[in-house]
């Protein structure tokens, strides 16, 4: 009995090891050269009809029925247009048939794992490309998405001109040959010798179902990417969905494995039908047939079980690797909002778009990281906010900003295109706004002169619309908490866009205020009740907006308003000027045109916004009426709140402030009694604002 138990245990152990090996091999898919999960074609849900159709199609795609015999596979599956799936597979022209099918099988496992819900995706290995979509791709020349790779070795400076000349001739040769390849295969290879005696090898290829002209156009466009892809390099490639090319100074293909295309068929000779043959026999039944049937009966259940086990394993793996993000709570209460996984970008995509986050593409540096300009393969310019890895608040603000901004759609709010959460990397991908931030315009002595009153008024009105959307029109009431000139971006038409929602708080619609012990923001723009007690509300944003109005009108920073040799804070000067009837002194001297009444009305509104008493400040809805209707009588403003401090940072979370007695306080609410109101005849010292 013990021997039987031991042998049975050994059998199951061996069986489990074999299963483990098979499952491990199923997971051990090689990494793509590049892949794209395309979001603009919509998503599907797990176990939906589309999902099942996709799995059915991809499992049968690398079969001889769907291939043309020369490395091209095309098929579709599904009964109706909503759930029908289309797929294309293309192997390099020198890849053997069995290697081609193996590559496409690897692709279908890897691509559905990397893009678990997108209806359209594309991935490339060295030997093959797999692409699927919810719309037909057959015969349609596609140039995006695309990628390029370069050989790091440089061409010698002495032979550069000759190398480039021979390369151009070689690429032109393989382009024309590939384009003329016909409907079975559009693939060409060749080599040339550079003046430095280097041999240049090159290939070009198109999906064979597109026309000769479309193939030629696609390759010409790809050749045009060489200055971005691989200038002065001995090798490189540009890969598009419908075409690709590559060149190197070493042999990277095997010409002997390229199948010869069939010759055009000749007219068949007229032959008499052959006489009946007595040598042909038909065999049915017999021992061989019975053996085959037995093998099939045994193998089918085993294969089904293995597929089931592997599928469960893949599902568990994908489920484990998904990163679920939830929105930060309103106040301190959790209010979970749906996942933003459909917005996720691959880190390598952003790394290439920003030229590996080069200094040349750096737009600015802030408290939570740097911002870089980038360009996606579809030609779209982007701004990438790369959170600092040593920021203790980075993950918190990152999750908040992703899931908050992803839901906001307004012309005066910056648009979030996506995010990347990979390892220690935390990236936010925004639309690129060409004119940078408002502080780079309004505080620049030269650029400010080019900003007339109409443009400034347009910016004020646009900011107003953006804030009122946050406060009133979005599903949840949103308190920005960090409105300032460096967080207002300006597009090419001088439309303002509010950005940087890392500090934002959500309110339910009937909530009017909240408290926090973690006071964050920027000196000079913070309302007194927030800085002193951690109380924030829509009126906190109104206070910051009032500071912005006065800065836009005066063209000067709130902490260092200059008039002749005198330097004082803007709010103090504006209030004293208003009280003395000389409010026109606040106006930027470069504003030589524009309605003086309109400018004075904006100063009036700004002073109403920065009043110390919360109840006295107007709402954003009433500010809209004040700006749009001169029939609305404006109340007389009361004295604004003034602060005195001496630190040099910009964020409350990382800086202190001092009062008149020299006591230093941080952001803790228990120390709020160190904030004092300055007398009317004293000048407040506001810390310098650093954009981030």
TrEMBL record:
Residues 357-642 form the Protein kinase domain. SUPFAM superfamilies: Protein kinase-like (PK-like). One of its GO terms (cellular component) is plasma membrane. It is a single-pass membrane protein. Residues 1-28 form the signal peptide. ATP binds at residue 385. One of its GO terms (molecular function) is ATP binding. The chain crosses the membrane at residues 295-316. Its main location: membrane. Pfam families: PK_Tyr_Ser-Thr, Stress-antifung. This is Cysteine-rich RECEPTOR-like protein kinase 29. It comes from Prunus dulcis.
């Amino acid at each position: 009995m013990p021997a039987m138990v031991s042998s049975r245990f050994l059998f199951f152990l061996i069986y489990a090891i074999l299963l483990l090996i098979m499952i491990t091999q199923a997971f051990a898919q090689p990494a793509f050269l590049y892949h794209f999960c395309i979001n603009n074609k919509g998503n599907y849900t797990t176990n939906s009809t589309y999902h099942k159709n996709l799995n059915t199609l991809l499992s049968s795609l690398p079969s001889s029925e769907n291939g043309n015999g020369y490395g091209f596979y095309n098929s579709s599956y599904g009964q109706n247009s909503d759930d029908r799936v289309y797929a294309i597979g293309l192997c390099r022209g020198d890849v053997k048939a069995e290697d081609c099918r193996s590559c496409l099988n690897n692709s279908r496992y890897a691509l559905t794992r990397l893009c678990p819900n997108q209806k359209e995706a594309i991935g490339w290995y060295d030997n093959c490309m797999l692409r699927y979509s919810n719309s037909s791709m057959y015969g349609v020349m596609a140039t995006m998405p695309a990628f390029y790779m370069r050989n790091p070795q440089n061409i010698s400076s002495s032979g550069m001109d000759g190398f480039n000349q021979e390369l151009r001739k070689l690429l032109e040769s393989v382009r024309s040959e590939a384009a003329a390849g016909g409907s079975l295969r559009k693939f060409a290879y060749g080599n040339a010798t550079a003046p430095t005696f280097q041999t240049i090898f090159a290939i070009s290829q198109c999906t064979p179902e597109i026309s000769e002209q479309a193939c030629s156009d696609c390759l010409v466009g790809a050749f045009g990417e060489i200055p971005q892809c691989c200038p002065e390099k001995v090798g490189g490639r540009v890969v598009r969905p419908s075409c690709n090319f590559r060149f190197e100074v070493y042999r990277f293909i095997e010409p002997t494995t390229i199948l010869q295309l069939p010759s055009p068929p000749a007219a068949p000779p007229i032959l008499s039908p052959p006489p009946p043959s007595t040598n042909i026999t038909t065999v049915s039944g017999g021992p061989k047939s019975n053996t085959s049937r037995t093998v099939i009966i045994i193998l089918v259940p085993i294969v089904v079980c293995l597929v089931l086990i592997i599928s469960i394993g893949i599902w568990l793996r994908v489920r484990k690797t998904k990163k679920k993000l939830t929105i930060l709570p309103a106040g301190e209460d959790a209010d979970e909002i749906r996942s933003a996984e459909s917005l996720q970008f691959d880190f390598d995509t952003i790394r290439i778009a920003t030229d590996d986050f080069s200094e040349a593409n750096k737009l600015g540096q802030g408290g939570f990281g740097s911002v870089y300009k980038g360009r996606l393969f579809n030609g779209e310019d982007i701004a990438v906010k790369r959170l600092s890895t040593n920021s203790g608040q980075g993950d918190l603000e990152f999750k908040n900003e992703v899931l908050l901004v992803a839901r906001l759609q307004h012309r005066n709010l910056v648009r979030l295109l996506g995010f990347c959460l990979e390892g220690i990397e935390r990236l936010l991908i925004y639309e690129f706004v060409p004119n940078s931030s408002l502080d780079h315009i309004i505080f620049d002595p030269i650029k400010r002169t080019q900003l007339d009153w109409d443009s400034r008024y347009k910016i004020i009105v646009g900011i107003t619309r953006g804030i009122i959307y946050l406060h009133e029109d979005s599903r949840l009431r949103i308190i920005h908490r960090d409105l300032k000139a460096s967080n207002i971006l300006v597009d090419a038409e001088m439309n303002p866009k509010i950005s940087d929602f890392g500090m934002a708080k959500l309110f339910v619609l009937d909530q009017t205020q909240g408290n926090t012990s973690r006071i964050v923001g920027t000196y000079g723009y913070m309302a007194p009740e927030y800085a002193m007690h951690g109380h924030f509300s829509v009126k906190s944003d109104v206070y910051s907006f009032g500071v912005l109005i006065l800065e836009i009108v005066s063209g000067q920073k709130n902490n260092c308003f200059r008039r002749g040799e005198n330097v004082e804070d803007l709010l103090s000067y504006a209030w004293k000027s208003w009280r003395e009837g000389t409010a026109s002194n606040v106006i930027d001297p470069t504003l030589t045109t524009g309605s003086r009444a309109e400018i004075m009305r904006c100063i009036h509104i700004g002073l109403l916004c920065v009043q110390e008493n919360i109840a006295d400040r107007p709402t954003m809805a009433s500010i809209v009426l004040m700006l749009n209707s001169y029939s609305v009588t404006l109340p007389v403003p009361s004295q604004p709140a003034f602060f005195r401090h001496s630190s040099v940072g910009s964020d409350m979370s990382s800086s202190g402030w001092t009062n008149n007695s020299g006591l230093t306080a941080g952001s803790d609410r228990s120390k709020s009694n160190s904030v004092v109101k300055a007398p009317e005849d004293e000048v407040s010292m506001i810390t310098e604002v650093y954009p981030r």
